Amino acid sequence: MGLRVLLLPPNPSPALLDAVEPDGVDVEVTRLPEHTSDALRAALPHCDVIVGDWSGQLRLDETEAALAERAVLVQQPTAGVETIDLDAWARRGVPVANIGPANSWSVTEWCLGATMNLLRSYRWADAQVRGGRWPQLGILDEARPRELRGSRVGVVGAGQIGTRLCAMYANLGCAVSYWSPRSRIDGASWMPLPNLLSDSEIVIVAIARTPDTLGLIGQDAVDSLPEDSILIDVSRGGIVDQNAVLKRVRARTMTGAALDVFGTEPPQLAPAVLGEENVLLSPHVAGVTRNSVAAQIGAVRDNILAVATGEPLLHVLNR
């Protein structure tokens, strides 16, 4: 009997299907007959490796861990593991791994693009030309563009993405600070969160969602952001009070916001928000490029190979 792999993503790509059956490894892949918790729990006692659900619909909590009697690895095919109870699997002696830094460059680059879009009013300028206008000087009064160089940038989170963000913005001439409850970034300036929020012209939220970070940046924190500031959220829904952010953008007391994640996905947004040119909306794709997806799938394949050959696992989160 080969290695039994339970594949939970509802619509796995051909590349992912190939990755869970590496060449030279005897693998038996199981997919759920329906995308439900009942179907998941029925399948768990019979699998060795569980490839997590990147849609976030199926959780792997204590109940599921108890049923996975023969499991030796939970491999999440994304960076986020908020739908997995790491401690519950650790108590069962089952490692949980994610994709490590596979999409960190893609997210970092997206943040830079969003920053420039908002600082330099790309959408406004595009709309002017499409509307038959040519306001070369009018942009100064109407959109108030400014340079990135010299800006005070605050990064919330010190993981792979936060570390790359600090380095990139510093290299572009920004004064960069960061906050994290535990991790530290060599060569970067740590600042208490309230100070970072009230001082930064550009705030980028790139911290993992945990019970401790839910509601981390609530309305009072949003209200403390400087006038004309920008907030970019590439963390997970529920960390930032996005309604408070959108209210300030619409009131023109913030320059703009870029949101790639939402409390409910897809979100239900008011028409006034949808028509706001200083709000950049994105369907949770900051980390999705051809490069990053190839790296993600490679990380899944590498750990399945490691299980089959007895090699050390990569990117384990619950040792």
UniProtKB/TrEMBL annotation:
The keyword ATP-binding does not apply. This is 3-phosphoglycerate dehydrogenase. It holds the Pfam family 2-Hacid_dh. Residues 16-318 form the D-isomer specific 2-hydroxyacid dehydrogenase catalytic domain. GO terms for molecular function: NAD binding; oxidoreductase activity, acting on the CH-OH group of donors, NAD or NADP as acceptor. Residues 113-286 form the D-isomer specific 2-hydroxyacid dehydrogenase NAD-binding domain. It comes from Gordonia desulfuricans. Keywords: Oxidoreductase.
